[in-house]
Amino acid sequence: MRRLLTVFAVLLGAALTSGRATAQEIQLTGPLAGAPAVRQMRLHRGGRFEIAPTISFTLLDEYQRTILVGGRLNYNITDWLAIGGWVAFGAVHTTTGLSDHIEEVTNGPGGRRATEPNNYPTAISVNNLLTRASIGSPFKNQLGTINSVISPQITLVPFRGKLAIFQKIFVDTDAYIFGGPAFVGLTERSDCPNDVADCSGVFTTSTRTAIAPTFGLGLSFYMGKFMSLGLDWRALPFAWNTGGFDTHGGAPDGRFPDNKINKDDREFKFNMLLSVSLGFYLPAGLKSSE
Amino acid sequence: MNQARVSLLVVAALIAAPSFAHAQKKKKAPKPVPAAPAAPAPAPAAPAGGTEIDADAPPGAAAPAATPEAATEGPAPEGGDIEAICKIDPSACPTVNLADAAKKDMHEQMYAVQQIYALRYHRFEIQPGWNFTFNDQFVSHPGPVLGLNYYITNVLAIGLGGGYYFNNDSKFNAQTRRAARVAVPLTEYQWQGALNFTYVPMYGKFAGFSDFIFHYDAYIVGGVGAISTRPIAVVDPDNRSFKWGSPKVDFNIGIGLRVFLNRWFAIDLEMRDYIFIDKLENTLIVMGKETDQSTWYDQTKLTNAVQAQVGVSIFLPFSWEYRLPK
């Protein structure tokens, strides 16, 4: 073991001490002194509008996945700063395997409500009693749903460059970050009327708007003078009741179910989306830097 | 004593070895070109006092006619090296017609990225990082990861990688169990290790705030290895206590982005899918055999553990020599 350590130490030392002056240090003097980092750079953004249809996919969903269809409109004040917004609507909602399993176990033909006593309060099984306040039929109707997102946002484009793919395809690329407030249209299980009644058998839903911060980062790949392909990741953190469950509000300290649905049952979620966009830039003409 | 000998031998070998990587293969010295036969027709000699060549003029008119006297007499030419060569040895005088030559295709080769900033050829890469779960909403598996790669070519590397996992059971599992009385089989990970191959098909550069330039590349990584997992007892935790069993074979494939801060240090972002067949906890309790371990497991499931990794790359040796200008 000691021998192995000795050899390893020697190898590591030799590798670390084999430094040598690099071949291409940036010249700070001479004719390039004071020259811009990039000459004749194509200015894809500065002074142009960007209209980008987007399709977004929610990530790490617990009970329901959502595909949002929308668009982004930006005005690029400079090549590195844009103001605009993103609007999207939940077009497709699909349940996860967990939701399907809950539905099957609870409401399915061979489920508990069909096979176990289910007459409240005279004859009811423990399973049906304890799920009575939390699971309606069908289960998917009570799930929290993102209906729409409206987000005015500022976009910063600090990095601009190009990408070589197999030394055959070359595309202008930029990396951007964005942020702003978001107004999220939600459908959730309705709060108990007056917040006092036992509404364990009520599974109606209602809509509300959650206000949340949103931020993210992305890449644009320019396929021509006025078109780009974009990919971005977006965080949208806010509290909501994704499963429509009664999880909080009861004693002690509100940590147990209280047979009432209200804002105590909302959980903070770090919601995330992945978006793909196709951007169009107007005017179509492209300028270059000096 | 033996240890000292071995260490001395290793040190001697290291001293003898070159201390930096070569970015491109060393070119062999050009073989001597056999002498060309003498040109049969001597070109016209330049007139005294030098010659002006009009590249746009038709063939034959490129240079004014010269008299034999001018070719052999008069003062030494002042027009430059070509005229001097023609004066001294007319047979070696260039006979290229510049007008025709200008019309030929140049076959000029332009590089989108001139002289790759950070070459990887024959360099080691040490890749420490931190791993985040990307697709398991039930149990997150963060943890440290480490990769060691050796670049056989500038775009292809072979290496070893591995990681250790911490496991965080999400709060929503307990809430689901309580609200829906449904138990979802959960799995925790212990470690994974793999033999990996990395291919770097893309590279480029970014201008940051139009002020400074940094380089990046994108790579594809894939490999085969083993992962150690076990179920978290959620159905019958009073009786079931799972042990880390035999590691399972796993395959991994992913993509990554490496941003170079200098020629030997980079920041990495990576997304990798670890694919393996997992054994899950039995969601049913066999009455009377609660402690029989053969009843604890039920189904097997193909698992895709998608993980995002953030880390750094350290390339060794730190520098190299370019062998070609481009």
Q: Could you walk me through the main structural features you see in this protein, from its secondary elements to its overall organization?
A:
- The complex is a heterodimer of chains A (290) and B (326).
- Chain A is mainly beta and 290 residues long.
- In chain A, 12% of the residues lie in helices and 49% in strands.
- Chain A has helices at residues 2-16, 97-107, 112-115, 126-131, and strands at 42-43, 49-59, 64-76, 81-95, 118-119, 123-124, 145-165, 169-189, 205-222, 227-240, 249-250, 256-257, 267-282, 287-288.
- In chain A, the strands form four sheets. Chain A has an eight-stranded antiparallel β-barrel with strand order 2-3-4-7-8-9-10-13.
- Chain A is elongated and about 85 Å long.
- The termini of chain A are far apart.
- Chain B is mainly beta.
- In chain B, 13% of the residues lie in helices and 40% in strands.
- Chain B has five helices and twelve strands.
- Chain B is elongated.
- Classes of the chains: A mainly beta (290), B mainly beta (326).
- At the A-B interface, α1, α2, α4, β7 and β8 of A face α1, α5, β7, β8 and β12 of B.
- β7 (145-165) of chain A pairs antiparallel with β7 (186-208) of chain B.
